[in-house]
From TrEMBL:
Protein name, per record: Carboxypeptidase-like regulatory domain-containing protein
Pfam family, one: CarbopepD_reg_2
Keyword Signal (UniProt): yes
InterPro entries: CarboxyPept-like_regulatory
Key words, A-Z: Signal
Signal peptide start-end: 1-35
Length: 439
């Protein structure tokens, strides 16, 4: 049942966050197609891996940004702090810049990462009370309004062609039952014009094992658009339209410092008495320049039936489905004084309750996308309609099966978590087994 999105802006729901649950009894084995195998040519890039940690506690830093200095090549660390970065050999002598909100940015030679087991430690950036800008707005809502108002000036004003890595996973409790990954080209329109972005699919692979889905097949409709519309500075109408701002209470929470910028953390929640499910979370705003550098927020799920109506379109008879958590994250990056979308994720957790079963099932779905490279282009390079993927795309239906480990070639990806790595290795073993049996 695809997650339903309302056509009315007043619902403030992202229009591409769609879920499918349909009856399914057949088991789908991974396909044996190796359509996207890399040619055995000499590699023109170097590959570096490691882990980003906090210096004092040694804990992993999740979603730290790693950028090759002087280029647009970047990646992020995964939920375990691990990263994988592919750098063209022509840039191997440059530095790597590692940043994380609230920590001191670190710059180190890329050549220092040529060994295995690299650990990059970042130190907490302490903000003294005397550093607080006394000229900053005293009203949190005023600061948010100014930030939204300054969007045209602070964010990209030229069309850009961005290379991005996209991954979506579906888990039944802790077990992966569906994986889909893609390299996509995102044509990002300027922030100062009202025109939607376009996405073109370049490479994709998937595997779904419906035998683990308890006779229910779940599919995420919308693919990369799920994450793209979390860019609230490009699409403020889906959460902070001029009409909806008054529905929220904004308060100052704390301040942090990153890249020598003073960042105010603004907490927001819907006013009591508003029954419609809206959002709650944190905005990270550069107080001096009025720039949103990131946001983490979630849907207020107070009425499960109303929440189900927002996200569930079709389901089998005698089954009840409702979300228990819907959360979002977006991070922005800066280049030459202008900011742009860099990473976003959507996490959904929900329960499936069968009328004739004692226990319900718990599922989670995650979609994330990271910009790994970009260049400024002319508006004429916007892909034709026939080249763009549909906003109703179900990536797991469009992609081929998992192929060899060199599938992505020089393209940067988000390093898989251990559970995903294990699932991919299992899929590849099944592929090799099926190939031997067919010979």
């Amino acid at each position: 049942m695809p997650l339903r999105t309302s056509s009315l802006i007043s619902t403030l729901q992202f229009k591409a966050t769609l879920l499918c649950i349909i009856g399914a009894l057949a088991m789908l084995l991974p396909q044996s197609s190796l359509a996207f195998q890399q040619n055995n040519t000499e590699l023109d890039y170097n590959e570096y891996s490691g882990e980003v940690k906090e210096a004092s506690s040694n804990k992993a830093l999740v979603f730290a940004t790693l950028t090759v200095e002087g280029t647009n090549i970047s990646t992020i660390s995964n939920t375990e702090g691990n990263f994988l970065l592919k750098v063209p050999k022509e840039h191997a002598s440059k530095n790597l810049v590692v940043s994380f909100l609230g920590y001191k940015t670190k710059t180190l030679p890329i050549s220092s990462l040529e060994r295995e087991g690299n650990e990059i430690s970042l130190e907490v950036s302490v903000t003294q009370l005397s550093e607080i800008n006394i000229n900053a707005p005293k009203n949190a809502m005023d600061l948010v309004k100014e930030t939204l108002k300054n969007r045209d000036e602070n964010y990209f004003q030229d069309p850009s062609l961005m290379t991005a890595f996209y991954r979506e996973t579906i888990k039944r409790r802790r077990k992966n039952v569906s994986l889909a990954e893609a390299v996509v080209n995102v044509y990002k329109t300027p922030y100062n014009i009202v025109r939607e972005d376009a996405v073109e699919l370049y490479k994709a692979r998937k595997s779904t094992d419906y035998s683990k889905l308890d006779t229910v097949a779940l599919k995420l409709q919308g693919g990369p658009y799920n994450t793209l519309y979390v860019d609230m500075m490009k699409y403020p109408e889906y959460i902070f339209s001029e009409e909806s701002l008054s529905n929220y209470k904004f308060t100052f929470d704390r301040s942090v410092r990153t890249n020598d910028r003073l960042i105010y953390v603004i907490r927001f929640n819907q006013h009591e008495g508003i029954l419609e499910p809206l959002y709650q979370g944190e905005l990270y705003i550069d107080v001096e320049n009025k720039i949103l550098t990131g946001a983490i927020f979630s849907l207020n799920i107070t009425d499960r039936e109303q929440a189900a109506q927002l996200f569930v379109r079709r389901k089998p008879a005698k089954v009840d489905v409702w979300p228990t958590e819907v959360s979002y994250r977006v991070d922005y990056r800066e280049k030459n004084g202008k900011w742009h979308y860099g990473y976003s994720s959507v996490f959904m957790e929900f329960k499936v309750d069968w009328a004739d079963k004692w226990f319900n099932s718990q599922y989670s779905m995650t979609a994330e996308m990271a910009i790994t490279d970009w260049e400024t282009v002319s508006k004429d390079e916007r892909p034709k309609y026939r080249q763009r993927i549909r906003k109703s795309i179900i990536l797991s239906d469009e992609a081929s099966g998992f192929s060899d480990p060199d599938f992505w070639g020089e393209y940067n990806i988000i390093e898989p978590e251990k559970s995903i790595e294990s699932a991919i290795r299992k899929i590849q073993r099944q592929l090799r087994r099926s190939e031997r049996n067919s010979d």
